[in-house]
Design brief:
The chain has about 325 residues and is an alpha/beta fold. It has 13 helices and 11 strands. Helix 2 runs antiparallel to helix 10 and helix 4 packs across helix 13.
């Protein structure tokens, strides 16, 4: 029922924007874009910038309506709406329809912003993005950072080494690389949707979770967690999916403008993340949560424990050995 309501809302929004035919000064094209983050999150702020930039640069020919905070459903449901044409776009770390994007989420693949940027701007990233249209009927017009490096938290004990995760019920969003990583570290994996995670932690459905500082603070997950470990084990690409039929119907000049605005949005998003993640970490610590920073030796134990996931992802068809070598080379040169 929730999914049906979300789709109906998306259809009503699209029809209302298009109703009554063209008028003088009215938009020629309307673009409803969904995402799951709340007010104040870098994704929300950068999407608001995108909408304003597009409307200004196209002189109103393209009208953008941003529907955040999961108003149109969870990320998978929103992507299904993009594929089906009920909405024109969505942003978020949803890879069910383009699982090869998961290669960028291999644990401990990148160590800093320069390496993340090099990976997301690489020819390999562009190639994987181009596969989306053939596979899903969507076009990826930008790929930025979904929220910064991801950390572990739980309610039971301080996590210093992989052995501390053994037996903990750790929440995953169902992403293959998160599942494989948590299992490699000895945790019991439980799948909980992002917008239901707060209550899942409050009720004990999960003992712990993994998310970037900005997501934890923005969604108040720290109110339901006691111990955090700053492990920086993974980052997520944040693809901006657009319905291919809608995109291909745009005149070339408007495509160029929208693409340029999406590029600026992605750069702004990553700058915001770099600015706010320390503030989010400080707020979590000030709330009373304990943050543990592993030693170099302890961090190596985590990295060694998850090496098995690289071969598992090759066996799953997420990437080839040649593509893994290319990823590692990109990072090394960054």
């Amino acid at each position: 029922m929730k999914k049906i309501i979300a789709i109906l809302l998306a259809v009503v929004l699209t029809l209302s924007l298009c109703a009554c035919g063209p008028k003088e000064g009215a938009a020629e094209f309307t673009m409803t874009v969904g995402h799951s983050q709340p007010e104040g999150n870098p994704r929300t702020t950068s999407m608001d910038k995108f909408a304003a930039d597009v409307e200004a640069a196209t002189e109103g020919r393209v009208k953008v309506s941003i529907m955040g905070a999961g108003q149109l459903g969870n990320e998978k449901e929103m992507l299904e709406q993009v594929v089906g044409g009920q909405i024109q776009g969505m942003r978020g770390g949803q890879y069910d329809f383009s699982p090869r994007l998961l290669m960028f989420t291999l644990p401990f693949l990148a160590n800093d912003r320069a390496e993340v940027t090099a990976l997301l701007n690489s020819d390999l990233a562009k190639k994987i993005g181009m596969e989306a249209e053939a596979d899903t009927g969507t076009v990826i017009i930008n790929m930025c950072d979904a929220g910064g490096f991801r950390q572990f938290s739980n309610n039971e004990k301080v996590i210093k080494t992989p052995s501390d995760l053994e037996g903990l019920k750790m929440r995953s969003n169902g992403m293959k690389t998160i599942d494989l990583t948590l299992k490699a570290l000895g945790a019991t994996v439980v799948t909980v949707p992002y917008n239901e995670l707060y209550m899942g932690l409050k009720t004990g459905l999960a003992d712990g979770q993994e998310n970037p500082w900005v997501n934890v603070e923005g969604m108040n997950f720290h109110e339901a967690q006691k111990y955090f470990t700053e492990v920086n084990y993974q980052f997520h690409p944040d693809p901006f999916y657009v319905n291919a039929d809608w995109w291909n119907a745009l005149p070339a000049d408007l495509q160029t403008i929208v693409m340029d605005c999406a590029t600026d949005m992605g750069t702004y998003n990553d700058e915001l993340i770099d600015e706010v993640q320390q503030a989010s970490r400080d707020a979590i610590e000030a709330y009373g949560c304990e943050i543990y920073v592993p030693t170099a030796e302890e961090l190596e134990l985590f990295k060694e424990a998850v090496k098995v996931t690289y071969q598992q992802c090759i066996e799953e068809g997420i990437l080839t050995q040649a593509e893994l070598d290319e990823l590692l080379e990109i990072v090394e040169k960054a």
